[in-house]
TrEMBL record:
Positions of transmembrane segments: none
Protein name, UniProt field: non-specific serine/threonine protein kinase
Gene3D superfamilies: Leucine-rich Repeat Variant
Organism, scientific name: Emberiza fucata
Gene label: Stkld1_1
Listed GO MF terms: ATP binding; protein serine/threonine kinase activity
Length: 313
C-alpha cells in the first residue's frame, strides 16, 4: 500500500523494494513476498531510468523466484508483469551487466508455462534475438536467452512460427560461438531442438544445422543432457529432410554413425540418451539410401545391444 500510494515518487519505490528485500531470509514472510512481484515490476516500469532501483528490483525478483523454485512453487506471472519486464529489457538493451541479470530472471520466469506464454504474447522474441546478436560473446546472456527461446518454442499452440524462424540463425551462431562451453552449448542445442520441432528451419538450414549439432556432440561427449537434446534435435531435422540424414552420414569431420555408437557406449546406462539415439536412428532409416549405409555400418548390432541393455523400455 505504501508503494501503491506514490507510484511516481522514486524514493518511495526504492525504499519499498529495500524494505521487501529485508524479508528475503525470513521463511515465514515468503508467501507474502510471492504476492509482491507485480508491485516490484510496476515500480521498475514506472522508474525505468533509475538504474539502482532497477538493479535492486531485479535482484529481489531473482531471490523470490529462486526460493519459489527451491520450494517447488511455480510462479505463473501474468501478462502485466511480462509487459513490465519487456519494457525494462527495451529500456536497458545496451547495458550488458544489467541485461545479464534480466535475462537470468526471464529464464527463471519462463519455467512456468503460463508465464512463458505471457512473455510470448507481449512480443519478447525479437528482443531476445536482438540481445543475442549484440552480446553473442556473453555466455550468461546466451545461456539464459536460449533457455527462454526453448520455453517459448516448445509451446504447442505457437502462432509465432515466422518470428521463431528468425531464431534459427541466431541460435546457430550462439552454438558456433560457444561450442566448447558445455552449459551454453546445451542450452543452444535445446533451443534448436524446439525450433526444429516447430518446423522453423528453411531447406537451406538442414545441412549446416546438422553439422553444427554433430560438432556440439563431438566437443561435449560427456554431457548427458546435451547429447540427449542434440540427438533429439537431429531426429527432428531428419524427420523433415533427407539432406540432414545424409549430412549425418557424410559429415566431413567423421562418420555420424560412428559418433552415435561412441555416444551410446559413453552413456550406456542412461535410458534417455538411448531413447534419443533410437529415435534418431528410426528417423534415419525412413530413407532407403541411408538405411543401406547404416546396415553396412553394422548399426543393427548397436540396436541389439540397446535392446539387451533396456529390455523393458
Amino acid at each position: 500500500a505504501f508503494m501503491q500510494a506514490s507510484w511516481d515518487v522514486e524514493e518511495v519505490q526504492a525504499e519499498g523494494i529495500q524494505y521487501l528485500a529485508s524479508f528475503v531470509e525470513d521463511k515465514t514472510a515468503f508467501p507474502y513476498l510471492l504476492t509482491c512481484t507485480e508491485v516490484i515490476t510496476l515500480a521498475m516500469k514506472v522508474h525505468t531510468d533509475a538504474l539502482d532501483l532497477q538493479v535492486e528490483g531485479c535482484t529481489l525478483l531473482l531471490e523470490i523466484l529462486s526460493q519459489a523454485l527451491k520450494q517447488g512453487v511455480m510462479m505463473a506471472l501474468d501478462e502485466s508483469v511480462a509487459s513490465c519486464l519487456l519494457h525494462t529489457v527495451r529500456k536497458h538493451s545496451e547495458n550488458e551487466e544489467f541485461l545479464s541479470m534480466l535475462c537470468t530472471l526471464l529464464m527463471m520466469v519462463s519455467a512456468s508455462e503460463v508465464a512463458a506464454e505471457n512473455l510470448r504474447k507481449v512480443g519478447i522474441i525479437p528482443d531476445l534475438l536482438s540481445i543475442l546478436r549484440r552480446f553473442l560473446h556473453n555466455d550468461t546472456i546466451c545461456f539464459s536467452c536460449c533457455a527462454v527461446l526453448w520455453s517459448l518454442a516448445v509451446s504447442e499452440d505457437n502462432a509465432d512460427q515466422a518470428v521463431l524462424a528468425g531464431a534459427v540463425p541466431v541460435t546457430s551462431a550462439v552454438l558456433q560461438e560457444h561450442l566448447q562451453n558445455g552449459v551454453v552449448a546445451e542450452s543452444a542445442c535445446s533451443a534448436l531442438w524446439a525450433l526444429a520441432l516447430q518446423g522453423c528451419l528453411a531447406d537451406s538450414d538442414y545441412e549446416p544445422t546438422a553439422a553444427l549439432l554433430l560438432d556440439a556432440l563431438r566437443m561435449n561427449p560427456e554431457r548427458t543432457r546435451l547429447v540427449q537434446n542434440g540427438c533429439l534435435a537431429l531426429a527432428s531435422l531428419v524427420r523433415h529432410s533427407e539432406t540432414a540424414a545424409l549430412a549425418i552420414l557424410l559429415d566431413s569431420k567423421g562418420s555420424g554413425t560412428e559418433l552415435i555408437k561412441e555416444e551410446y557406449h559413453l552413456h550406456s546406462h542412461e535410458p534417455r540418451v538411448a531413447e534419443a539415439l533410437c529415435l534418431l536412428m528410426s528417423e534415419m532409416v525412413q530413407y532407403d539410401e541411408v538405411m543401406l549405409n547404416m546396415r553396412s555400418q553394422k548399426m543393427e548390432k548397436l540396436l541389439s545391444e540397446i535392446k539387451f541393455q533396456f529390455p523393458f523400455s
